[in-house]
Fold this protein.
Amino acid sequence: MRNTLVISGLAVLTLLFFAVSLYSGSVSIPVPAITDILLGKGSPDHPSWQFIIIENRIPQSVTALLCGAALSVSGLLLQTAFRNPLAGPSVLGIDSGAHLGVAVVVLVAGGVVSTSSLTIGGFALVILSALSGAMVVMALLLFLSRLLQNNVMLLIAGMMVGYIASSLISLLNFRATAEGVHAMALWGMGSFSSVSLDRLPYAVVIICLGLLLAFLLMKPLNALLLGDNYARNLGISLRRTRTLLLLTTGLLTAASTAFCGPIGFIGLAVPHIARLLLGSANHRTLLPATLLTGASLALLCNIISTLPGESGIIPINVITPVIGAPIVLWVILRIEK
Amino acid sequence: MDCQLKDLVIGYPGHAVAGPLSATLRQGELCCLLGANGVGKSTLLRTLAAFQPALAGEIWLDGQRLKEITPRHLSTLVGIVLTDRVRTAGVTVRDLVAMGRSPYTNFWGKLTEADHRQVDQAIDQVGIRPFTERQIATLSDGERQKVMIAKALAQGTPVILLDEPTAFLDFPSKVEIMLLLRELAHGMGKTLLLSTHDLDLALQTADRLWLMGRDLPLAVDSPRELAAALPDYFPSGHLSFDAEHLRFNLL
């Protein structure tokens, strides 16, 4: 009962934020005009409004929704797989891996980072490169997790991997053009607005594929709550589950990092909000709840980012820590208790 | 269901921990695995649960060699209770017991009516009905151990292996767990093997003992028959063994 209520509530909230995200933005456009544009009637008097809504706000809102969902689900998978409430794609350095992958393509190949201005081939290259970076880090962590019994040690190991990736990125920056460095720095602040309408279908397909894979892992994830040995005794194939986890978290983190830049805190904090709402760690309900919480939270961040109006957009990575960090502190306090 | 060990050598590649071991685990008996730290009790249990391969020899279960049984089938034959303290937040006692049904549920892990009945049965057999809705992180060690045993019962396996199920427990809880396990063996015909350091308790409750010692063969018999051999397996200058009352006394 509570589960159904929470999940439907979150679905409504996601839809609401999605609508607000379409109706609000840096440029103020009257509500009836937006409705007309969304209904396909166009805006003959203001062609620029049509462009803003269709080419800008729709892809931006969809990207926020998808990337919020992707990062949160990725965080949940990591927290369960490593049995560590403080695991997340950015804490463990997985998005640094993806970041490094992107940096290699952008800075070495000399492209410009904004995914909207890349050719299809360049776009695919960025995604593939991000995916390889993310999966290398994830594979390394899975290997280390078998050697490290202590959960905190794994977090530190992940942070070290992140530092190495960051220093490699800096090294690449050193050799790159000023233009490339500037593009990379902007991208690093996080934004939902760099996926253009014609690239949007690729983002949708890739992230939905990752989310689908996550849903296929529901049963083994529940068994993993008891630890590897109990899971194995319950007939779960650890090797297959680990491989799928590697692929899924890699895909979700890499896609959202390639599209929006490395966005912190969503992957770490959202699964905790979902657990708090449900009061349960059962992935049959926790997974959809996490997905929806992540989607609505990212949309909320997107709405907040456009609040300054004409004067500019607040980078997403300025907003997520304000929401995420208190939640992480709360989790730590609860662990200590 | 019986389980046979034939010239089993256990350990890690390049490092044999114990063996060759030959013994039979009998259905309907509570068998206690005793031995000093480091003789390979946990390694033996891990090998029997197929967590690690045997270095040599064979384990026979259900008329098949253990290594030839698929993981899926094995999960319906052998259940385990480990020393790992599971304290995951957001998992209730009932959730945890229900996880024992995993080998039988569909791809999505959905519990059927029959699964729920099995879970209820396991909960009642172990006597944890009063706290089924509590979070496992809030349980005492003794309560959590009972919940893990209920999970193994819900798993419906004829064989249950337990690694030091009485460790960390206060004395009354130790006694309670041992009597519960004996009841499961005698009343339900389960095949139970548990490792323990609680010698006195094992000697009083077990139907059969497996004694492991460094450089000593695996001794298998009832506590009374093994009484004479016990001091060899637990050498100590400070203890004498009273074979008549089956207990160690301080010198």
